[in-house]
Design a protein that fits this description.
Helix content is 22%, strand content 41%. The chain is of the alpha+beta class. It starts with 16 loop residues before the first strand and ends in a 6-residue tail after the last helix.
Length: 193
């Protein structure tokens, strides 16, 4: 699991391959999701993940059934995925994360690494806005010995994000829609198949 990677992404151009790679706190691999770099704004770096892209983790893989954009914020302990497909239950899915950092891939493109901290802030069409996986967070906190300060910081960040999403504060105010349109316009035919 890479550590100490820079939070800032320097040198990326729209269209570059971006592989989002999440790990668990104990160093085991978690989700891997490819996409195409779209650009940067005041909120962070935006990555388009088109329908048909391979989404995988050890023991599981599937083809993405809808387009999404991922926001890797300039600051904060989270990564966000935004959807606008009415057939997709999720509208917003925020993974509470730590050790977020970028590195160049040896054959071109970029990799953003993060440590998934279990808690998720979810805005769902069927369930509304909720905090998910609190039980997993508590279990892994004990099992993997999360430092107390980290547990407190992640819990506080999750509560802040719940309020921000519920209040439709930027970037949870529809900002992602423009990035989704840009991704579809420029990269819809680009998947990981």
């Amino acid at each position: 699991m890479p550590a100490g990677l820079p939070r800032d992404l320097i040198g990326a151009i729209p269209g570059d391959l971006v592989v989002a790679r999440a790990w668990k706190y104990d160093g085991t691999p978690h989700w891997v999701v490819p996409g195409r770099y779209l650009g940067e704004d005041q909120h962070g770096q935006w990555v388009y993940q088109p329908t048909g892209s391979l989404v995988s983790r050890p023991g599981h893989g599937h083809w993405a059934e809808s387009d999404a954009v991922c926001l890797i914020p300039h600051t904060g302990s989270w990564l966000g995925t935004f959807y606008d497909d009415v057939h997709e239950d999720f509208r917003i899915y925020l993974d509470l994360s730590t050790q977020i950092g970028w590195r160049a891939l040896t054959r071109g493109g970029w990799e953003v690494n993060s440590v998934d901290m279990d808690l998720d802030v979810v805005d769902s069409r069927s369930r509304g806005l909720y905090l998910d996986d609190e039980d997993e967070f508590a279990e892994h906190s004990a099992l993997m010995r999360y430092p107390r300060r980290l547990v407190e910081a992640i819990d506080a960040e999750a509560r802040t994000l719940l309020d921000a999403v519920g209040s439709h504060l930027a970037p949870f105010d529809g900002t992602a829609h423009g990035w989704l349109i840009r991704g579809r316009t420029e990269f819809s035919r680009t998947s990981s198949r």
